[in-house]
Amino acid sequence: MNRDPHRHDLGEFLKARRAELDPAAVGLPDGGGPRRVAGLRREEIAVLAAISTDYYARLEQGRIQPSPSVLESLARVLHLDDDQRAYLYELAAKEEFRPPRRKPRPKAQPQLQRMIDDMAHTPAFVIGPRTEIVAWNAMGAALITDFAKIPEKQRYHIRLLITDPAMRQLYADWEGVTRQAIALMRMHNTNNPGDPQLAAIVGELSARDEQFRQWWGAHHVAFCDTGTKHLRHPVVGDLHLDWNAVTWAADPYLHIIVWTAESGTPTHDSLRMLASWAADPSRTTSDSST
């Protein structure tokens, strides 16, 4: 009989968090020698959570559904932050097995495209739960890359971050940006376990890149809808941009990513320069490495 894929993900999440815990941080003695496993042992987690070792082992194996009281104990013992706690409860809430649904690649409605096209000086693009890039405006393409030249089946933000060397140059904190993208992917896809399209992109990138494989396997999660990023743009130089993710009400799986800068700052002026560059009809693709 097939097991609920949420239970599998829950077990993997528990193992990943257990492996990160320092015994001293939870008040356990050192033991005087090297430990055979990273972090805490199953029996140590079970003792701290006041459950049996067998019960906890079955949780990690995806064989049983935890009770609310056990979830609360595990969240406390594993020192989960708010995002991790929300992810834990979201996984545990999916008790009934449902075969994964093959959701089509999201599409941007014409009015959504018109809206971002009207942002003449503001970079914007629309992203799906698997990091599909489904729409963008001229400034979004000028800031990041010419998305139109990327085949649709390969047009994923996470795939660009991993496979395109220009992305490692563009994002000053490439590792932080990439790890955050992976954590957001996990958080946004809790409602569709076993998604074949997500599995395909994860499988491809895991085979191609050891860092991606490690970061995906760490089961870190996050929910973030605003922040600041430092970009090193090949045309206009350093940019310190605020970004916001806005959910499109007509399709909650779509998020509009908008980049802005405070008026009067060097980055604000640079965005105006970038807009002029992007609108120049004499510009060719060789004018920029993006």
Give an overview of the whole structure:
It is built from 13 helices and 5 strands. The protein is elongated, with a radius of gyration of 22 Å. The longest helix has 16 residues, at 5-20. The chain is an alpha+beta fold and 290 residues long. Helix 2 crosses helix 3, helix 8 (157-163) runs antiparallel to helix 10 and helix 11 crosses helix 12 (210-217). It has a 5-stranded antiparallel sheet with strand order 2-1-5-4-3. The chain has 2 domains: 5-93, lambda repressor-like DNA-binding domains (434 Repressor (Amino-terminal Domain)), CATH 1.10.260; 110-287, Beta-Lactamase, CATH 3.30.450.180.
Which characteristics define this entry?
290 residues; 434 Repressor (Amino-terminal Domain); Beta-Lactamase; 13 helices; Lambda_DNA-bd_dom_sf; MLTR_LBD; DNA binding
